[in-house]
Design goal:
- The protein is an all-alpha fold.
- It has one domain.
- About 85% of the residues lie in helices and about 0% in strands.
- It starts with a helix and ends with a helix.
Length: about 240
């Protein structure tokens, strides 16, 4: 029993998913400040005739805040899982936090695993289904981040196509000749090229940053799933040894 208690991670580890996301958010905020300092945001929002770059930035900000909420949820569930194991090890229950622990992913999984053991096969088949359910439950919150990352990337590519269409439409509409007409043509083509490049750059950077956050949350979610399974196994072995 002492070895199991010693093996437990420290309480600070439960906040690692949120702290990791917070570091990424701080780096992104610092990068946004540098863009503002060099007046690059003004170029993004004023030179894009389609306003796709602004839409991409707004979607990126909303997705980032949503992923931050998912990171906090994973940290909260990890803390509840560790508290549940601490109660099992010390054989004490805090009435104030008991209801919160019982509503956690770890308590739900442990309850279902315990009920599945009454089956004739010992719950072997059902245990696999419960593990799949747990994985979907833990990953379900932030899995939409990958989809939104793909949406941002496709919006950037759509802006590229629109920019080239604007650039070529200025060539088709050219009717005059001379240097003034050539200058007007180059100005129109540069506007379309700015749209293509700005939307592509904004979409690629946004998709890359969202993917980094989703990758971090995937790793933390996998660790939480592994920890919950380990806790359930520890509790089950402890219960069997007490029954024996």
């Amino acid at each position: 029993m002492t070895e199991s208690t010693h093996y437990l991670p420290t309480k600070a580890d439960s906040l690692k998913p949120f702290y990791g996301w917070l570091i990424l958010f701080g780096l992104m905020a610092f990068g946004a400040f540098l863009l503002w300092w060099h007046k690059l945001w003004a170029i993004v929002f004023t030179q894009d005739q389609t306003y796709l770059s602004g839409i991409i930035v707004v979607l990126f900000l909303l997705t980032t805040l949503y992923l931050g909420r998912c990171a906090w949820r994973i940290s909260h569930e990890q803390r509840l899982a560790e508290a549940l194991l601490d109660e099992a090890v010390s054989n004490t229950t805090n009435a104030h936090n008991a209801n919160a622990h019982h509503n956690s992913w770890a308590a739900d999984y442990l309850h279902l695993i315990t009920k599945s053991q009454v089956q004739q096969d010992g719950g072997q088949r059902l245990a696999e289904s419960l593990q799949a359910r747990l994985i979907e439950q833990v990953h379900g919150g932030h899995s939409s981040g990958w989809f939104l990352s793909d949406i941002l990337l496709r919006l950037g590519l759509m802006g590229t196509v629109i920019g080239f269409v604007l650039m070529l439409s200025s060539v088709v509409g050219l009717q005059e000749e001379g240097i003034s007409a050539l200058k007007q043509l180059l100005a129109s083509m540069s506007g379309g090229m700015q749209v293509a490049l700005l939307t592509t750059l904004t979409g690629l950077c946004s998709a890359m940053l969202i993917s980094m956050q989703c990758h971090w949350l995937d790793r933390c979610a996998d660790q939480l799933v592994s920890r919950i399974i380990e806790i359930s196994a520890t509790q089950t072995l402890s219960t069997d040894s007490e029954a024996a």
